[in-house]
Write a structure and sequence with these properties.
The chain is of the alpha+beta class and 92 residues long. 32% of the residues lie in helices and 36% in strands. Strands 1-2-3-4 form a 4-stranded antiparallel sheet, with helices on one face.
Length: 92
């Protein structure tokens, strides 16, 4: 998943975080660039309930690099959650 944080809405407002769904979890990624660094965060929601946030920053990365890295990290986190949930079900 890639977003272009330099694009604005016709109203001039900042773009809303791009959302994707992975294994039942909504992943919303928001990236912003300053003159010194590119920062991003991925918010994770399951059934409209906030489940966590990942954030990274890099002075050298492009906004697309940060968004792609956050997407990979968020999917990995969801994979771990699902694995733990499966293990708990089989352990009982």
């Amino acid at each position: 998943m890639t977003i272009d944080p330099t694009t604005t809405n016709p109203s001039g407002a900042a773009p809303r975080p791009a959302a994707s769904r992975y294994r039942g979890v909504d992943i919303r990624i928001d990236v912003e660039r300053t003159p010194d660094c590119t920062f991003g965060r991925a918010d994770l929601f399951e059934d409209t309930q906030f489940r966590g946030r990942l954030s990274i920053g890099s002075p050298d990365a492009t906004p697309e690099d940060v968004a792609n890295r956050l997407a990979r990290l968020a999917r990995a986190k969801v994979d771990i959650w699902r694995s733990v949930q499966r293990h708990r079900r089989t352990a009982h």
